[in-house]
Amino acid sequence: MWWIFPLSLLILFEAIADILSKEWAVHGNWLRWTAAILVYITANVFWLFALRDGSGLARGSIIFSIASAILGAVIGLVMYKEYLSNIQIAGVAIGIFSLVLIFWNGV
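^ thats the sequence. predicted structure below, dont judge the formating
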């Protein structure tokens, strides 16, 4: 289960890169763009370690995708005052439920 650590770092760095990307989209500035690209690259280095350490492509990519989407939604809501419709909120809830199912048997 060592793969959970690099996968968690992947998700964290992806969230940081998403924030930098949003800041670039709102304010411009090539430094934000460059920082976002570098953080995305760093995040994907952790993906390589997660794969090597046993996350599996199918399981790891599902966990990464859902966790990143949930974290992105939270960042959008809290930091940027974005809005989710009721259907989108249901989608986030289903994503959380799917993570529970993936981890149900101790991964």
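The mean pLDDT is 96.
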